[in-house]
Inverse folding.
């Protein structure tokens, strides 16, 4: 099951992701809509975090519904999005979310799907997505690839030292379960002198492409396309981020 891992991390998230180009990701999603001849008006964003991608959907005029499990993430997202009348924000879980409306597009970014580590939970998530899509709707999401989690992140340690935050990121890969455990220790300062420490634990499962495709097929998606993220090129053995597109036909 997914647990609420981002609560204390929420206040630092945007700062740590300051060099991440959400506008480029939004443009990529729009290029997917264009390539597949989709002009969605009603969009559902799963695991929206602090609303960085949501902001671009909102500005562009999409009728956006977005949700996340973390109350702290949502409180930050609310501050960014509350001025938009075309956005609804909810606290829900990817595994069992429920809305009365159906959507023409459902999106999930930043390897949120990898956080679903159980096959049945992922199958349930995909079934839920399928049921919430209009006929002709499009579902697009990305994952950290099996290669990346096992060979690049797994069993490695990363350290970053910024002016107001220092953190260590230790990773341990479980061969039996294909789950990568992240152990992060943060030291951050609000006054430049005194530092506070907190620790986070995260888990992502490394999925092979065929495992994802099989589950998508099981819930009814018949057309599934797979690309190296931010491109329309086929992934290779060393692709680190893979984007899936599933159509409800």
């Amino acid at each position: 099951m997914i647990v609420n891992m981002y609560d204390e991390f929420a206040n630092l998230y945007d700062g740590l992701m300051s060099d991440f180009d959400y506008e480029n990701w939004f443009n990529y999603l729009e290029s997917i809509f264009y390539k597949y001849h989709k002009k969605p008006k009603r969009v559902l964003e799963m695991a929206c975090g602090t609303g960085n991608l949501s902001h671009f959907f909102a500005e562009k005029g999409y009728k956006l519904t977005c949700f996340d499990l973390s109350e702290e993430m949502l409180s930050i997202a609310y501050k960014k999005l509350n001025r938009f009348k075309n956005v609804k924000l909810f606290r829900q879980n990817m595994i069992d979310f429920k809305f009365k409306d159906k959507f023409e597009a459902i999106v999930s970014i930043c390897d949120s799907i990898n956080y679903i580590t159980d096959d049945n939970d992922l199958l349930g998530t995909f079934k839920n997505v399928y049921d919430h899509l209009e006929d002709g709707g499009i579902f697009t999401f990305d994952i950290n690839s099996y290669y990346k989690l096992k060979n690049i992140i797994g069993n490695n340690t990363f350290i970053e030292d910024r002016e107001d935050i220092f953190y260590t990121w230790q990773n341990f890969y479980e061969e039996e379960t294909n789950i990568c455990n992240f152990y992060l220790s943060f030291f951050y300062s609000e006054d430049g002198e005194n530092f506070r420490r907190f620790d986070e634990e995260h888990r992502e499962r490394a999925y092979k492409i065929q495992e994802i495709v099989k589950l998508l097929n099981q819930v009814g998606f018949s057309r599934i396309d797979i690309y190296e993220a931010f491109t329309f090129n086929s992934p290779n053995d060393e692709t680190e981020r893979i984007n899936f597109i599933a159509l409800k036909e």
